[in-house]
Amino acid sequence: MFEEASEVFDNMFKSSFPLTFIVFIPAVLILVSPLPAEAAHEFTVYRMQQYDLQGQPYGTRNAILNTEARTVEAEVLSRRCVIMRLVDFSYERYQKALRQSAGAVVIILPKNMSTMPQDIVQQFMELEPEMLATETIVPVYFALEDDELLSIYTQTLTSSSSQGSSSAAEVLIHTATANGFQMVTSGAQSKAVSDWAITSLEGRLAGTGGEDLPTIVLVAHYDSFGVAPWLSYGADSNGSGVSMLLELARLFSRLYTYKRTHAGYNLLFFVSGGGKFNYQGTKRWLEDNLDHTDSSLLQDNVAFVLCLDTLGNGDSLHLHVSKPPKEGTAQYALLKELETVASNQYPEVKFSMVHKKINLADDTLAWEHERFGIRRLPAFTLSHLNSHREVQRSSIMDVRSVKLSRNTKLIAESLARVIYNLTEKGAPGDLQIFTEQMQMQEEQLSSVVDWLTAQPRAAQLVDKDSSVVSTLEYHLGRYLKDVRRHYVKADKRDPEFVFYDQLKQTMNAYRVKPAIFDLLLAFCIAAYLGAWPTHLTTLNKTLSSILLTQRIKCMVLTFLERSFNVV
Amino acid sequence: MLGLAHNQSFECAGREDASKLVGEFASVGLPGNMTLFHFGNCFALAYFPYFITYKCSGLSEYNAFWRCVQAGATYLFVQLCKMLFLATFFPTWEGGAGVYDFVGEFMKATVDLADLLGLHLVMSRNAGKGEYKIMVAAMGWSTAELVMSRCIPLWVGARGIEFDWKYIQMSFDSNISLVHYIAMAAVVWMFTRYDLPKSFRLPVTVLLGLCVYKAFLMELFVHVFLLGSWTALLVKAVLTGSISLCSLFLFVTLVHSN
To answer: Does the keyword Transmembrane apply (chain B) (predicted)?
Structure first.
């Protein structure tokens, strides 16, 4: 048959060139075509943080993976993708996967975090900084759970946990019937993003009555942090701070429009970026204002700098200072006013001052006011957290902010009492200024927080064209004057911060069968094919042996004639 | 990989270790080149029966290769005409999604009568014994169908990372089609014989109708009884087997009675 085939092809070649062209070019194209991907399931995964801060690398270094899936119960984890659910997550299991040099780790998070019991959430929040503390080459991904992902997980769990326990025959049957899954990411290897500009915004309200007025600076950083940048929504830290800053800007701009309430203080509002990366925005802003400009509000007469950081939950308020304020300063006045307002109007709030010296030997600064403190400006940070190391400041589980309106009112009242010098003028402790027309707008506060938490605001994701920055700029522009943007880029030779890309990927899960399955199948097909010619010959023999018998032939013919003649 | 497994099997003792070893070997992930092995499996399953049938039926002695290719070309032409006809006269039916249009599908299946005409055309152009004509027509026809409708999905799909049982099913289906087309060619040949006894007319016509509407019947079964893919394949095999046995029986009776 092959000789005939070659003859035919020879004729084809000799006869006409277009015919061979038509036949062969599509064949060649099909042979070299790339394989289309048709996966069992395709889902989005979010990578763990990867960044360098002051030369120190943090987080996971790798982004690509193409490995088979297993769960932690399996015996062999090396070069496999380990899938874990949040409910089963523990640091020991995570360490076990890393120790056995797993190919990747994928952690499945429930779609609705609020259904998780509180202790699991708390445990995970405490593990986040530990996971980030050391750099690892194993790519760690987070995925949100859906039905198909859950079924993939349960199938992988059953096959992983049955590996060591059953007999060889059972294992063989199991491999023929069960599905394995191959997890493949579609992106490239991660690399450093060059020329990333962190944006900060400033705006001011000028005071009245003279040239050299004292300035009060209100600062809040708008970026959020978590173990995965695309999942950091940061409702409390620091969505609450930004929202409070905007509300304060609105209230005081209203007060400043009327001549009678126009106070003798300049108010400078600063929404800083890169706050979670050692306050890069603030650092550069200070350098620009103090070192590179001739005259700036920050140089002349700063009463104090109040930083708002994580004020959305809890029933306590702490004023973090690096030096206890001296009597007679505006700082001291604010401290006293806060105590007064808290004790008179909000007795459920426990207010205290926390004194922590700036430690320049630490890797990162504690609170934002320390940046100002280093430049000898009187500053403090207000927060409901007791310590800067608390895990609520940098968690992906931070999605709620419930006590914001009460805290905003408290701080607004205290600020007003300082600015208008109300205690000296004899105003009682329970006098409420922001009522009726000057009422604080709670709905606006909560809607700003909702808008801020609608998108992840990690510093690596908010570039200067981002909608977060432009919306904040617009809102500041409604209340403040001289709204300006301020950019900070990392230094070329000795960068303070380096961000990496490939933080969000699409992962495909392909159903695969193990190698032995193909061999089994080949055996079965060979047996089936081997039987084919024998079947044909036996059929041939039986038929001819049956029908060579005359009698049966006649019987068949007469039977047919009779039955169909009747019809 | 195999060498390592071999060494380990000598060193470890005890059944648990052996079973663990088998488990580990069995669960080794599928490298990229093994998917080509799977394609090879499916292709062998689909193509080898054709090859074996060609060899065993003695067609190679008659230099029938070029005639089979001609039969295949006729198949292409007939399919093209059928497609044009369907596209022109049967507009797309905009009805509900789940309702099965029995009448419409029945009409579409009637167009498959063109297949019979095509087979008759092929057979009439080939001179020779009845068996020779039937085998040439059937081999060429079914090989053309194999190449056109199954090779490309197999190449594209079975080579991919994702595993699906449908490729094995497709290969089985091509085997069943081979038998079906042999039976169909035999029935067409019997139908056009001038010396066909009257008693044979009716069963031959019935078988002819079954051949043409077999696809329609299969879809009906699957839709009404909601059969799974393996069950549908089994039903199809049984149906084709019975049709082909009946037609073979009638054919041998006819040939040996002359």
So the answer is: yes
